[in-house]
Amino acid sequence: MQVDIFTQVIVPVVGGLGIFMLGLEFMSNGIQALAVARMRDLLAKFAGTPIKGVIAGTFITGIIQSSTAMTVMTVGLVNAGVVGLRPAISVIMGANIGTTLGNGLIALPLGPLGLLLGGCFALLYIFAKSDKVKNIALACMGFALIFYGLNLMTGGLRPLRNMPEVMSVISTLRADDFGGLIACVVTAALVTALIHSSSATIGIVMGLGSAGVLDWQTAVAFSLGADLGTTITSWMASLNLSRNAKRAAYAHITFNLIGVMITVPLFFVSIEVLRWGMGWFGGDPSVPVMINGRETYPLVPVAVGLYSTVFNIFNTALLFPFTGVFERVLSRIGRNAEEDIEDYSTPKHLTAQAREHLGTAVPAIREEIGRHLQASALYLQSARRVPTAPGDLDEHRLAIDILSRDIRGYTASLFVPGQTQQQQDLIASLIEEEDFASSLAETLHQVARRVQRDEFSPEAKPLVEAVLDAVGEAMACVLPGAALRPMPGPQVLFDLREKVLGLSDAVKPFERGAILALLGSAERAFMLIGRLEEERRSVPRAVPMPVGATAGDAIDGAVVPAE
What we know:
- Helices cover 70% and strands 1% of the residues.
- The protein has 21 helices and two strands.
- The longest helix is centred in the first third of the chain and has 42 residues, at 5-46.
- The chain is elongated, with a radius of gyration of 31 Å.
């Protein structure tokens, strides 16, 4: 029988692959538009420990159906300092499990209904009025198109079995021995790395297996390579991010690589176990079934989906106890002196126990604001290029911003019904103090950036140092443990301005402008430091504990600020 390559193979295979990947995109976009912001918040909230991280990664990836999107999201949260490296490693482990749910769904025999359901949901998407209904319809349309595309690919690949020249090439990729197994794994990994979707690779493999072009054992071997190749996307997403974000991506690569390296020697044993297990899911996947007069292998996709699921669960269970080892090893990658400084993105004093009583919460907040100010003061060291100071100003700024948000949120949570006016004034004053501290941090970031960005001549450098000294002396008045001393007045800045204007003509105009702009930032810093001091004096900060009270007492109306 003569095969028309173009109409019988190329058109349905290319068209089916395009529809399959479009379905994946539609389903992912629809679900993420409905839930990704909520899922990101849930991830940041619940991924505090490794066990919670695995559960969160599995649950959220099972919903958004994209381990790639989940891993990239995790890398972004690590970069923002919201999630630590150790929980992030466990989240990535959970994401590998969650994405296998999609592989199982792809294996369902719903191909013939895919076009009908896709058309129905497409009409719903077009005529829907609300964004919520549109996103639901988009996700369901994508889900239906996945099966229709897979059905088209299977039909287009089936004629290849009657083409000896094609089968002779494909026969070189057979997982009959360890050499063939490794070749299949590497090929699938390269294909997945190119198209950035393990689900698409597994869908292609399922189509080849259903059509009988690939035997079921080789199809299963390709699923291992797909798990390995999907790590490339998270690595690419981390290229321009922080060191910890890169380490999270490296964890994804290492985790999947170790899993494949452990599974490959056990592959042929696991295949026999899978053959036995398939007895519960329809029988031997190597036995063909006649459908509409055509020989197909409908159980091959089931076997691939089942093996992928068990592989990821086994891999997670095996490596989860070593999460701490992963963290310690990865933490040494790219480490330098900057990482030995304190991590200011994570609060040290804002504990749940301290929040139970104003008498303990207020001192904790004041200590944390002090840490915020200490972190801000490091900008002056960065401006002077002190080796131990933060080298990446934007990364340090991000850490301080996260700390500021945590302080404000923690302080605002102290508002409870039944408080006195004095208690509410105290809480509000603490929020305003933190706001001044946050604005001061932004100003000092601007100071450091201007000093680092511009080159100054030998005549101008002493004036730049004098500006930094003046701001540093003013900052010393509000830092924790500062001795009581008057804050320097703005006259010092006025004097420096006169010196700038009196520089010789050898100093270039842009240098004069840069130093004058720096003085403007310094003046704002002086103003904010003064406002911060005034806010501290405006409402008494001492909150004595009532007689007989403990740290576990409730705060609503139980304490009063000192007079």
